[in-house]
Amino acid sequence: MKIGIAGTGRMGAAIAQRLLGLGHEVTVWNRTAEKTRPLAAAGAKVAAIPSQLAGASETVITMLTDATAIDATYHGKDGLLAGSVNGKLFVEMSTVRSETERLLAGKIRAKGAAMIECPVGGTIGPAKEGKLFGFVGGEAADFTARSRCSSRC
Fold first, then answer.
1. Is the pLDDT of residue 150 over 70?
2. Which residues are bridge partners to 3 per DSSP?
3. Residue-wise over 130-139: b if at least 16 C-beta within 10 A, else e?
4. Does residue 66 form part of some domain?
């Protein structure tokens, strides 16, 4: 599976490492490019801009700092939603207010894509082992029909 991860801080990097270890094709992007270097050394591709990440991925996971980072990453000139994302799945894992998530979901849906909200509980250790607790929300059809990552992720 081709998975993109926007936001490679401690948690995003741990999730990327887990997915690489399972054999997924992982592309990463971060506002601070040097945070992607260890993942590139581990086999991840690095996108120069968020829209490039979205174009290279079937599923995009975002693990961002706050609502301002979400806005810039999704809606900037080269943001995740700048190009065609029809049919893609976005898994938004940032811990932000529900209003931010609802507004984002509507914008993603308007582009022909789906979004599942999935903030997590846990630390980087469980993330590397695939043992995070996810608190999933979204449209039932998006979750069942578009979720292609098994419980092994």
1. no
2. 26, 59
3. eebeeeebbe
4. yes
In total, how many domains does the chain have?
A: 1
Specify the CATH number for the domain of residue 18: 3.40.50.720
Kindly state the tokens that stand for 40.
Answer: 């590139």
Q: Average per-residue pLDDT in the chain?
A: 89
Distance CA 34, CA 143 (A): 33
Please state whether beta strands 59-62 and 25-29 pair in parallel, antiparallel, or not at all (unpaired): unpaired
pLDDT, position 143: 65
43: left (phi over 0), alpha (psi -120 to 50) or beta: left
pLDDT at 121: 77
* Token pair for 120: 């997590």
Q: Residue 63 — very low, low, confident or very high, per pLDDT cuts 50/70/90?
A: very high
Residue type, 81: L
